[in-house]
Write a structure and sequence with these properties.
This protein is an alpha+beta fold. The chain is built from five helices and 13 strands. It is 25% helix and 22% strand. Strands 2, 3, 5, 6, 7, 8, 10, 11 and 13 form a nine-stranded antiparallel beta sheet that branches. A two-stranded parallel ribbon has the order 1-12. A two-stranded antiparallel ribbon has the order 4-9.
Length: 278
């Protein structure tokens, strides 16, 4: 087992210990200083930091890799969020192999995508975000499927202030404790060869067209965009890694052929057949 994976297991265990101590303190009246309850939480983040350092932060000069050029995983008009073109790690942490991950949302026309609202509606149905919801997701290269999970539910959007607070303060921490699979939701991991793996997350339940062990060709649909896992609205989370298990993997930088790496809020057009032409 890798240092990074052991670190993630210890991180989750210490978080559970923190919750257990708080419950015991409140419900059982244990007579000890309140700050003791937070010791496991402090140790948890210390372990995560050490595991990332020993396991090697992927953007350190020693481990830096040239971007791997692959085809775009979608077609049509999209915009980028949490882009590694603006910062790394793009999602704030190296964990789950997401140092160079990117989120993309469909932008069929200016103003067509439902926007953030302070209070109402509290949530929207996934199909309100058409065409992001149910958009085809494509293999970025000829590859072998090494992970394929498609049974998790698609939930309502979290695009209001109460919804986002619920996602960040309740859903997110619970999914983190439950494991990476609950964070990614329905997901596919492809082995591209040469120690590079592509991960697609938050896919629609029941939309996967591949199984583990299948060979796929560049441009072949592997699933459809959804809103499963730790997701605020239907979108695609895409990343390259150096291992098939996100808990053990380091992120690998990517570049989409003909597009590069879109910056935050940059709208880009991925043409039909781009994967095949590459």
């Amino acid at each position: 087992m890798s240092v990074r994976k052991l670190g993630m297991a210890a991180f989750r265990g210490l978080q559970l210990a923190f919750i257990g101590l708080v419950i015991a303190h409140v419900r059982l009246g244990w007579d000890h200083p309140a700050w003791w309850d937070f010791l496991p939480l402090a140790f948890a983040y210390a372990v995560l930091t050490v595991a990332n350092r020993w396991g090697g932060a992927p953007d350190s000069p020693r481990l830096a890799r040239e971007p791997v050029e692959v085809a775009p995983p979608v077609t049509g008009r999209w915009s980028a969020l949490n882009s590694p073109a603006d910062r790394t790690p793009s999602h704030g942490i190296h964990a789950h192999g997401q140092t160079y991950a990117i989120d993309i949302v469909a932008e069929p026309a200016p103003g067509a995508r439902p926007g953030f609202r302070w209070f109402r509606p509290l949530a929207r149905r996934p199909r309100d975000f058409f065409p992001a919801h149910d958009a085809p997701v494509l293999a970025v290269a000829d590859a072998t499927v090494v992970r394929a999970v498609g049974h998790r539910r698609d939930h309502l959007s979290r695009t209001s202030l109460p919804g986002l607070l619920y996602l960040m303060l309740v859903e997110g921490p619970v999914r983190e404790l439950a494991g990476t699979g609950h964070i990614l939701g329905n997901h596919v991991v492809l082995d591209l060869g040469n120690g590079t793996f592509a991960a697609y997350a938050h896919l629609r339940r029941g939309s996967l067209t591949v199984r583990e062990g299948d060979r796929v060709r560049a441009g072949q649909p592997v699933a459809r965009c959804g809103n499963s896992g730790n997701s605020s609205e239907p979108h695609l989370h895409f990343q390259l890694m150096d291992a098939p298990d996100p808990d053990a993997a380091r992120g690998v930088p990517f570049s989409w052929r003909g597009i590069g790496v879109p910056r935050n809020r940059e709208v880009f057009e991925a043409p039909e057949g781009a994967a095949v032409l590459g």
